Structures are given as structure tokens and as C-alpha cells.
Amino acid sequence: KRKNYHAAEARYREALVYKSNDAMATFGLARCLDKLGKPDEAREKYESYLKILPQGPHAEEAHKALDRLNNEGQKAKK
Fold first, then answer.
1. For 43-75, what is each residue's pLDDT tens digit?
2. Which fold has domain 5-77?
3. Dihedral-angle region of residue 4 (phi above 0 means left; psi in -120 to 50 means alpha; beta otherwise)
């Protein structure tokens, strides 16, 4: 199974045009952006997901991703 993150990113962005507060599309986009090496955008979308659905099914994963991205960001600034 090949993971096409670029295509998935486009689909999630399209879904969010029609329903901007869709938690699952927001989380999916965050994951794609993370995999594509776009940490700032990924961080923003993980945070958006948690605002929409703080106790959602992917909340723990979103928090872990944010911790990792924030730690990587701090290391890059040093």
C-alpha cells in the first residue's frame, strides 16, 4: 500500500473548504503535513483539531505530535 501524502493533503484541504470545522479532515491534514515535512502547518492543524474535538479519538496522538514538533522546533532554534 503506497501512501500518497500529496494527494491526501489536497483531498483534506478540499474537504475543509466545504466543512472548515471537520475534526477528522483537520487531523488527517495535520498528519499529511507532518509526513511531508511541513512542521509549522502540521502544528497549526493539530492545534485546530484539539480545539474542535479536545477529547476526540485522535487527541492523544495530536498531543504527542505537538510535543514532538515543539521539541524539534526548539532543537532547530539552538
1. 999 999 999 999 999 999 999 999 999 998 777
2. 1.25.40
3. beta
